[in-house]
Amino acid sequence: MTILWQNLRYALRQLRRSPGFAITAVLTLALGVGANTAIFSLLDQALLRSLPVRDPGQLVILQGTGKAWNGRSSTHGGDVETYFSYPMYRDLRDKAKSFDGLIATTPENLALQRRGEPEAVDGEMVSGNYFHVLGLTPAAGRLFTESDDSISGNHQVAVMSYDYWRNSMGADSRVIGETVRLNAQPVTVIGVAPANFQSAVWGQTPAVFVPMAMQAQLDTRQVDRSNIHADRWLNIIGRLHDGLTPETAQAQLAPLWHALRADELAAMGKRSPRFTQSFLNASQLKLQPGARGLSYRREGLQKPLLVVMGMAALVLLIAAVNVASLLLVRASARVREFSLRYALGATAQRVFSQVLLEGLIIGLLGAIVGVAMAPLATHTLAHRMVDDGDTTFFQAGVDTRLLFFSFAVAVLVSMLFSAAPALRLMRPDLVSSLKEQAGTGGSGRLGFRRVVVGLQIGLSVLLLVGAGLFVRTLQNLRTQNVGFNTTHLLTFTIEPQQAGVPRERIPALYQQVLDRLAVLPGVTAVGATTSPELAGSDSGSNVTVEGYTPPTDEDLDISVASVSPGYFDTLKMPIVAGRAFSDTDDLEHPLVAVVNQSFARHYFGSDAAAIGRRMARGGGNKLQWMQIVGVSRDAKHSDLRQPAKMTNLTPLRQNKEAFYIALYLRTANAPMQDANSVRATVRSIDQGLAAEGLKTMEGQIEQTLSNDRLIELLAISFGVLAAILAGVGLYGVLAYSTAQRTREIGIRMALGSSRERISGIVLMDVLRLAGVGLLVAVPCALLLARTLRSQLYGVSPADPVTVICVVGLISIIALIAALIPARRAASVDPNVALRTE
Amino acid sequence: MISLRNLERSYKTGHTENYVLRRVSLDIAEGEFVTVMGPSGAGKSSLLNTLAMLDDGWRGEFFFEDAAVHTMNRKQRAELAKRRIGMVFQSYHLLDDLTVAENIDLPLSYKDISRSERQAMVADTLDRFQIVAKKDLYPSQLSGGQQQLVGIARAVIHKPSLLLADEPTGNLHSAQSAEIMGMFRDLNRQGTTVVQVTHSEANAAYGSRVIELRDGWVTRDAIQPEGANTSMGSMAAR
């Protein structure tokens, strides 16, 4: 203990004596630890952490595979197979024997009115057993019971989330029993959810929970979904009996699932054998581990987070290598000190522990500074990573897990970077060290530092190749031809029902909006669609094409949307055969359709052959045929990475259920110049109507690229940081080796070497170091880049342009790092150099 | 061969100018064996470095084989030194990472000489100094005397007309010293002008002339009696 205390005091004194070294080392590490802590914080919350509920390991997420019922389906994200109808939920809940309980959940946008104006809030509609099955206790009042959800429309109750209760209701317990209005319906607040619980769906932060029994009253379309088998809108989470594994439960549930699907199939009437096979026999109920909760966002965040975490780990490694390099310089300067210690009787173990302790102190100080910086970085990253700006589900604070992670990382890297100097000081050559004989040999002593610098160059090459590939990806995504003209285009959405517009008035309102916007000064064309472009969403359907017999294994999902006649002109999406829609394509006239080239070529062989042919959405016997009147050029729809899908467009005027549209305005001026007049025009048509998400199409594209931009930004930042660290490391080695070789340089000059040749020695040194680093790192980088393939677009993981640029950049950095040592070497005064003794 | 006129060398320390050479004027003829002596700090090494053209900071006139060194720039001086002057150091200054043969080759590598020609010259020199067997050894594998022998071989391989030696036997014991000094004497007899700096009277006896410096001034410039070197040499050898 005394020895430890003595070592500690000595280590602290050493750091105090070299504040420049201490600050550089601590900040370098803090940078690495801070970046890793911040990114691990997001990774932990998104991908690793369990829900704060009782025994989260017993939770499972239900997934139903196989052909879907041809009906409505909603997805808020995630896998479409995790959506079920309410009747299916009810049957599973009541008949399945494997569960302690099954809960249903769906997000719901609500207008919450307490005092004054209604406020748009996120809500979660849940089954009555939701809180009970999750094992939660209220922060105030009571939570739902099954009786709150027993009779449709009979229980107008709500549970507030803890955060909303605390932030917007002042944590007032008198709110229990108070009546608030949700979508204009009076609802009694019965309780507050527990403090650390947000939702069973990770990424959702509802302000209020309402029972499923209120669905019909709260639904803006006023449709009661409780008995519609074809309407898949719920997510189901189950709690398995204690000790039951998901695999066993899945096997137990198979007969019940088959029977329930058979009932549904029977309810559909007569269907083809192919459909029966797909709907019934190929269908399975799967149970996925649900400890982390369901998530609509996890899928989209997983890959970017893992990539960013990988990059941060590399930066940490570089930081550790840099500190190791700094420690090696100190070790060289302290060889005599440690030789003396050995000569005076110190054991190797004692010297080793002294050096490790010094490293550990640097590591821990780095971790403290890094953890202090992490929350800000977490907050910034979360904002950049989530494209809709809602990051409330990410917490920026530092908890015990995070502290443990950061300090574990710090201790690990401390050991790593202390090992090099410790080994260097383990067995010094006592005689020559104590005599401090000046020699001219350098390579042996510097060998390890050379390896370290080579490693730094290699690691920065990995990051720079990654950064280069991401830059090229983003460039390709931005500059690709999406199939329509994205410049001078303004877009926004309107949802008349939320503004209280009755359903029957909506088609007329749409027409009014289109007409009024078309005459705005500066607006050259206006179009509308029910499925917004490049917004990350899509509406799909299967189709029946007259005269086309699909192969047995064909199961195509066609993009569908209803568009206004001006849609094609506004987007500058050319019609390559036939005609676009006209104002007369309404419900008074025969149903018509426009398909894209992919559709036409798949079903009819050519664009022209599609004109005049008939098709219908869905399958079965009751088909509503429509005639194809035009073929549009292929265009990307849901996002920039996916190729154009087969698409079927119908006239907006022939769609009675278009409750939401996205509008596009082509403008003569810079689009945002017209933003205010557009907002005013929309509001003037109906006071409650708002132009939501008004932005340019280029802005919309940038929003869909938020994850790519974040990765690019981080990759560039980390790459540049790594390159700078490598440059500094390289400079350190060269400066040190030049200083070590002063005598050699003096001799060479005394023997007739020119100053240019002396500079050449340093430059050759740097070329060798950088060359070896590059030779090893470039193939490794190319191999590693293959794991990024899914994140790249239009660029090969072995992109030669990227590799050439990285090699060029590293060479430039290496030469810059070599300039000062080379100049210093060339200006060595042989007189002075040879007088060293 | 060498003519110095009012040569001065000083270093600035703060506001004061410290002179290490003061108005030095002397001539050294071709074939002389000159010993520069004096106590520490007298300016011996500064004079030698000036003669070696390693130092640029002096003032005055310096003619070398009729060339006015004081009018030359640094590059021209370096070029002249490279061709005409060889240098032997007290601590040998061999490069630790190079073998004996490579060390000897070093001055040639800075000249425009073909590889085969260089190899032949190195082989000749190794032979002449009787160190062929040591050609692949590294300096650390040699004794001090052997290292200095290599240092001399390296200094004369390009056949300089002037050989400068700064305390060439300072790190050697007397037997090795005698051997090295004998080597200088032989080289001098073969026509190389030698200028050595030494504290040793015995070494000075090998030369034909002694120049003594004190506080930068030339305080004595005397011709060594003929034959003194021989008797001293044989005495040292004994």
Structure description:
- The complex is a heterodimer of chains A (837) and B (238).
- With 837 residues, chain A is an alpha+beta fold.
- Chain A is built from 25 helices and 24 strands.
- In chain A, strands 15, 16, 17, 18, 19, 20, 21 and 22 form an 8-stranded mixed beta sheet that branches. A 6-stranded mixed barrel of chain A has the order 2-3-9-5-7-6. A 4-stranded antiparallel beta sheet of chain A has the order 14-23-13-24.
- Chain A is globular, with a radius of gyration of 34 Å.
- Chain B is of the alpha/beta class and 238 residues long.
- Chain B has 8 helices and 10 strands.
- Chain B has a 6-stranded mixed beta sheet with strand order 6-7-8-3-9-10, sandwiched between helices. A 4-stranded antiparallel beta sheet of chain B has the order 2-1-4-5, covered by helices on one side.
- In chain B, a hairpin with a 2-residue loop joins strand 9 (209-214) and strand 10.
- In chain B, helix 5 packs parallel to helix 6.
- The longest helix of chain B has 16 residues, at 174-189.
- Chain B is globular and about 50 Å long.
- Chain B starts with a strand and ends with a helix.
- Residues 230-238 of chain B have low confidence and may be disordered.
- Chains A and B meet through helix 22 of A and helix 2 of B.
SSE layout and pairing:
The complex is a heterodimer of chains A (837) and B (238).
Chain A: H1 2-17, H2 19-48, E1 59-64, H3 86-95, E2 99-113, E3 119-126, H4 130-134, E4 140-141, E5 157-160, H5 162-168, E6 179-182, E7 185-192, E8 201-202, E9 208-211, H6 215-218, E10 235-240, H7 246-268, H8 273-281, E11 285-289, E12 294-295, H9 298-333, H10 335-343, H11 348-385, H12 400-426, H13 430-435, H14 443-479, E13 489-494, H15 506-518, E14 523-529, E15 540-541, E16 543-545, E17 558-563, H16 567-571, E18 575-578, E19 592-596, H17 597-604, H18 607-610, E20 614-617, E21 626-632, E22 647-651, E23 661-667, H19 675-685, E24 692-696, H20 697-704, H21 706-740, H22 742-750, H23 755-785, H24 800-826, H25 830-833
Parallel strand pairs in A: 3-9, 5-7, 8-12, 17-22, 19-21
Antiparallel strand pairs in A: 1-10, 1-11, 2-3, 2-6, 2-10, 4-7, 5-9, 6-7, 13-23, 13-24, 14-23, 15-17, 16-20, 18-21, 19-22, 20-21
Helix pairs in contact in A: 1-11, 2-9, 2-11, 2-12, 7-8, 9-12, 9-14, 9-21, 11-12, 14-21, 14-23, 14-24, 15-19, 21-24, 23-24
Chain B: E1 2-13, E2 16-28, E3 33-37, H1 44-51, E4 59-64, E5 67-68, H2 74-84, E6 85-88, H3 100-109, H4 115-128, H5 144-156, E7 162-166, H6 174-189, E8 193-197, H7 201-204, E9 209-214, E10 217-223, H8 228-237
Parallel strand pairs in B: 3-8, 3-9, 6-7, 7-8
Antiparallel strand pairs in B: 1-2, 1-4, 4-5, 9-10
